[in-house]
Each structure stands twice: as C-alpha cells, then as structure tokens.
Design a protein that fits this description.
heterodimer, A: alpha+beta, Glutaredoxin, 3-stranded antiparallel β-sheet, 16% strand, B: mainly alpha, 78% helix, elongated
C-alpha cells in the first residue's frame, strides 16, 4: 500500500489497486479514533493493574462463644446466619440452601454453620419460635435441627394461628418435649437471643436472612436468599485457597 | 456550549461509575454471583452468565463513555442497561425480596435510596443518549451531499 501526501489530501491505494482520497479532516478523525482506542486500552490496563487477586473484606469474625449447629469450630470456613423463623425468605434459605450446606459441607468438617436469632418486629411469633429453637439447641444439635426443620416447614400455619408449640411438638418425642419445656424456663435463653440481636445490630444487619462468610481471616457479608448451587461455588473457591 | 459541558460531565460521571462498578465486581466474582442470585429472578446458570459477563460490559461501556468513541451507541446501551437494573431492583423491592443491590459494593441492600440513585443515573444516561443521537443527526443533515 502506497501513501502519497499532498498539501491537503492524502491518496491511499487499497488492496485492489483503487486510489482512495483522504482529506485532512479524515486523517484527523482517524487519529482521534486511534487516541480514543488508546484511552480505552489504558482503562482496561488500569483495571487489571489495580485489581488485586484478593477481595475486599471486613475483618470481623464470628464471636468466640458461637455454637456451630453444623460442623466444627475449627472448620476453615464459617457461615454465620442472622435469621428470623417467621420470615419466608429465611425459610427458603434454610430449606433450599443451608440444609444442603449442613449435610454436604458441615458434616464433612469443611464449614461451621452458626445460626443467630434476629426476630424482626413485624413478625409477632418470631421471638417465641426463636426461644423454642434455642431451647432445642440446649438439648442437642439433632433436636435443634429437627425443631428448625419443623418450624420452617410449618411456618405458614403457626405464623397464622400462633401455635408455635404444636409445630415444635410434632418434631420431638414426648420426653424431649418435656425437657424442652424445662429448658425454656432458663433465663439464659432470652439473654442469648438478646445478645444475638445486639450482635446483628452491631454488624449492621437490617434484613433477614443476612449471612457472614469468614475464611482466611476475612469476613464477607451477603443479604438475601442464595441458591445452593451458587453458594457452593463460593465455598468451593474458598476451600480451594 | 452549556450542553457540551453537561455532556462531558455526564460522560465522565457515568463512565467513572461504570468502571468502578465493574472493578468492584471483578474483584470478587463469587460475591457478585450471590448478589445477582439474591434478586431471585434467574436460575443458577443464568446467574453465573450474568455475573461473569456484566462486570466486563460495565468496564467496556465506562471506557467508551469516557473516550467518547461510538458515544451514541454507548450512551444508548448504558441507558438500556441502567433501565434494566432499575426494573430488576423495582421488581425485587416491590415483591419484598431481600436482595443485595450488587451495584457498587456487595453489602448494599436494595432500598429507596438505591432506587433513587439508579433513577438519577438512568436519567443521565438517557439524556446523554438523546443528546448524542440528536447531535449526530444534526451533523449529518448539515454536511453537504457530495453527489
């Protein structure tokens, strides 16, 4: 390709041998376009240089007194969920996602799951359900799991009629239920729930479910229902590091 | 003159915000996947597809807006994208879905504030798109026909 420059115009032979005429304005437009492309390339370069391999994170980690309802405290990843038993999203999150996390990650020792009570003011029966769940946790992890399953699965019913105890009783034996009633008298239950709520406020929890994932000394906050398929991708990426 | 200054301001603001938004998402793609998923609008494969492509699209659009190259297309696409974000946020908020906005940080919940902010950005992008298309049309009509 040959280029001959005159005072105001340039002539370029294209691959087919045709002579193309370019005015000075055309050259300016081409140069401007090249400059713009350079700017875009610079933006991309800046992004790559500035983006570190790590991730932005808070440094807070779950409180030391936290009880893992699944997995061990020494697990490399901790999931701390602030949940409300009367909240439909919390039900979906627990039944659709967290139950699978408990069986596939917590039981394998990869993740410690902590459930915190965060009953919202708009749910009148949530505090009572939280008390039953905490009392069940005093009986054991199996009982907590059974009561939590029952409370979430029958949520529509007891949220309407307020018969929380009936839903809890359906999940436990008579002997366990009588022990649970005894455990409910313990004032420590209310204190623990109050502490969970206060902790949630400190962590700026304003909605449920809100969960914090801690791994490698970093904590990330997430709000809302997340599918198991999506959460497991994140957990796998954390465990692979 | 005032319109040209306003155009530059809008380009710079939207471009910078888009590059920053894309950057925060690229830094932690898994968290952004969870934010997209929290809208409860897409199946898992759709969530992954959107979460993995959107940040790059935002960075590219931001670059185009700042450089001014293909401005009318970039501005129109930005307006379309922001309109889509606004629609998704409004649907989630109206439906009572507790979702993470996923806009600039991964911890921001959808609220009237995020809706207002997105509406403002949408209005900016829309006015930029209209202005750049009008300007282009005016340039074409003022150029003498070579024939």
């Amino acid at each position: 390709m040959a280029v001959e420059c005159e005072k105001f115009h340039s002539y370029v032979y294209n691959s087919e041998g045709h002579l193309l005429k370019f005015s000075a304005t055309s050259w300016r437009a081409i140069r401007k376009r090249e400059k713009n492309l350079m700017r875009i390339a610079f933006c991309f370069l800046a992004i790559f240089l500035l983006a570190p391999a790590g991730e932005s994170a808070q440094t807070a980690s779950p409180a030391a007194d936290a009880v893992c309802v699944g997995g061990k405290a020494s697990a490399p990843v901790k999931i701390e969920v602030f949940s409300d038993y009367q909240c439909p999203s919390c039900r979906d999150f627990y039944l659709g996602t967290m139950r699978s996390v408990l069986t596939k990650y917590a039981d394998a020792g990869k993740v410690c799951v902590i459930y915190r009570e965060f009953p919202l003011n708009i749910h009148p029966h949530a505090p009572e359900a939280a008390r039953y769940a905490h009392a069940a946790l005093q009986l054991g992890l199996r009982q907590w799991s059974q009561v939590t399953d029952a409370l979430f699965m029958a949520q529509d019913r007891w949220a309407q009629d307020g018969k929380v105890e009936a839903a809890v009783a359906s999940a436990l034996t008579k002997e366990e239920m009588s022990r649970l009633r005894e455990a409910l008298k313990d004032p420590a239950i209310d204190a623990t729930i109050a502490r969970d709520i206060e902790l949630g406020r400190q962590k700026q929890v304003t909605a449920t479910p809100t969960f914090f994932i801690t791994a490698n000394g970093k904590t990330e906050k997430a709000v809302g229902v997340v599918q198991y398929a999506i959460l497991s991708r994140y957990l796998d990426s954390l465990l692979a590091r | 003159m005032a319109l040209r200054i306003l155009e530059r301001i809008f380009r710079l603001v939207l471009g910078t915000l888009f590059i920053y938004a894309g950057y925060t998402k690229l830094r932690n793609p898994f968290l952004f996947e969870m934010a997209v998923d929290s809208y409860r609008l897409l199946p898992a494969t759709g969530v992954i597809l959107v979460a993995r492509s959107l940040p790059w699209l935002e960075v590219a659009l931001g670059g185009l807006l700042i450089s001014g190259w293909k401005l009318r297309y970039a501005a129109a696409f930005t307006a379309l994208l922001l309109g889509g974000f606004l629609g998704a946020m409004a649907v989630a908020y109206a439906g009572g879905v507790e979702a993470n906005c996923g806009c600039f940080s991964m911890e921001e919940r959808i609220s009237p504030l995020t809706l207002a902010r997105d509406s403002l950005l949408f209005a900016m992008a829309l006015s930029l798109a209209v202005y750049s298309w009008k300007k282009q049309t005016a340039q074409f009509s003022s150029t003498p026909n070579p024939g």
